[in-house]
Write a structure and sequence with these properties.
Length: 501
């Protein structure tokens, strides 16, 4: 790199944005982070956290490689504990002064050539966020930068499906991210729409205060217990061996596929056993048992069985149906024909990505035919100075985001050998065929789910770094895949750069 640091704009200060800023800063870039919320944290920000929100993951699998939680943190951290952890991370690595809160990105466009001789690549236009309570003393301003990293994530814009007659409903309509105050549902009839973790968590939280809670879902998904007996879930399922029971990763070689065919009966027994144990240990009510093993539909599975307890206690009920229309000012009609009385409707129906701030020519390079066109889920082939971190949504977001940030920083530094754009495009198409088969309900093409180790291995090989991170066979394949395995990546990259790797 030149002696004059290259400027990078990082959009978003959640998990992906913070770790990207830290890695890029330590690699010598001049980093500025833009965050439209009043605090860092992304999905964990207090303004978006519903009552009872805590991680799906044990704390060691929801941590960066070089920064641990305080020892008093819950085994499955609460939203408040995650917020504290992220703030401490930002403070520890000197990120706070680089983060512009309450700052919304309006557009990212190609920059005009600088008459002074500089050649910035992008012009980023920002303004005070609409939610900022401080008086606006200025309007939009622009920043010229050499690189842009999008970390606004897969939990960007609440998705609320269109419902016929919704304007006739006189109660409150909320997305799960807007259900932040239990008083909202006190002594009211609540209908929660959705079958995912956020929907069930909202139903559990509402049951403490509401007069009645009904969850409308078409099909249940697996919610795994946090513990299998006295053994925490990460020590059972978050390891390299457990991945073998899923369909092979798209990089699987002929020998691995042959082994899988030979071992198929063993894997079948393992899948059935885990499904049976998950049902019994989690005390899953019969009406909430999915019609597939735990390894199928993994893009919708979660961890935490609190809702099952609420259901068994009679504090909530379920209806296996979707919402068809609004039948009246306080009536919801299901597609089964049943009508439900409701004062509050909470949609736990997920999120959609928002990259609308990219100018049209940039947007076309990234979003094609309804899905993201990104090499390794990070790089647009024909936009080599733009990257996406955190879009490879996984079962260990801090780890996959951190290794993605290292990969992208190495590329920005000119130290990563990648295929030309046309070969990148062919690889993207090949991976796209795999994701459509394995994750049919993640049509945007960004999800990698449980394939954390395979994805991280892919990025590590690209960077010329070792993929095996422990000294023994059993610890490597049966030990839990915690972020601290990768604590030395930054130093390994520096050694490789200096010729000592």
């Amino acid at each position: 790199m030149s002696s004059s640091p290259k400027r990078i704009a990082v959009i978003g200060a959640g998990v992906a944005g913070l770790v990207s800023a830290k890695v890029l800063k330590e690699d010598g870039f001049d980093v500025t982070v833009f965050e439209k919320e009043s605090t860092i944290g992304g999905v964990w920000a207090e303004s978006r956290a519903y009552p009872g929100l805590r991680t799906n993951n044990p704390r060691e699998t929801y941590a960066f490689s070089d920064f641990d939680y305080p020892p008093t943190t819950d085994a499955f951290p609460t939203a408040q504990q995650v917020r504290g952890y992220l703030k401490a991370y930002a403070d520890r690595f000197g990120l706070a002064r680089r983060i512009h809160l309450n700052t919304e990105v309006l557009s990212v466009a190609r920059a005009d050539p600088d008459p002074g001789g500089g050649h910035p690549e992008f012009r980023v236009t920002v303004q005070p966020a609409s939610g900022d309570s401080t008086p606006r003393t200025h309007g939009p301003r622009t920043e010229d930068v050499d690189f842009v990293v999008l970390c606004n994530g897969v939990f960007s814009v609440p998705h609320v499906p269109e419902v016929e007659g919704l304007e006739r409903f006189e109660g409150q309509v909320l997305h799960s991210s807007q259900f932040t105050d239990p008083e909202t549902v006190r002594e009211k009839r609540v209908v929660v729409v959705g079958a995912g973790k956020s929907a069930l968590d909202c139903a559990s939280g509402a049951a403490e205060e509401a007069a009645a809670v009904t969850v409308a879902l078409r099909r249940p998904h697996w919610m795994l217990p946090r513990y299998f007996g006295s053994t925490r879930v990460d020590k059972v399922l978050f390891n390299r061996f457990s991945l073998q029971v899923f369909p092979p990763y798209h990089t699987a070689k002929r020998a691995e596929r042959a082994f899988r065919r030979v071992a198929a009966p063993l894997f079948w027994v393992w899948r059935q056993a885990v499904s049976l144990v998950a049902r019994r240990v989690g005390k899953v009510p019969a009406e909430m048992v999915p019609d597939m093993p735990v390894t199928a539909g993994i893009e919708n599975n979660g961890i935490g069985t609190e809702f099952y307890e609420v259901l068994r206690s009679g504090q909530a009920r379920i209806r296996r149906a979707g919402v068809a229309s609004i039948a009246g000012p306080d009536r919801i009609r299901l597609d089964s024909g049943e009508e439900l009385g409701a004062d509050v409707v909470v949609f736990g129906t997920g999120w959609r990505q928002d990259i609308s701030f990219l100018e049209s020519d940039l947007h076309r390079e990234v979003w094609r035919d309804g899905w993201l066109h990104l090499y390794r889920h990070i790089l647009p082939p024909r936009e080599p100075r733009m990257g996406f971190v955190g879009y490879a949504s996984s079962g260990n977001a801090p780890l996959t985001s951190e290794i993605s940030a290292h990969w992208l920083s190495q590329w920005f530094r000119g130290e990563l050998n990648l295929p030309d754009p046309s070969n990148m495009a062919r690889e993207i198409a090949r991976v796209r065929r795999w994701t459509r088969k394995v994750f049919p309900r993640r049509c945007e093409g960004y999800f990698i789910g449980a394939y954390v180790s395979s994805y991280v291995d892919e990025l590590m090989r690209d960077m010329g770094l070792k993929t095996r991170r422990t000294d023994g066979f059993f610890s490597e394949y049966l030990g839990p895949l915690w972020g601290k395995r990768y604590r030395g990546v930054a130093e390994e990259r520096r050694r490789l750069r200096s010729g000592r790797g």
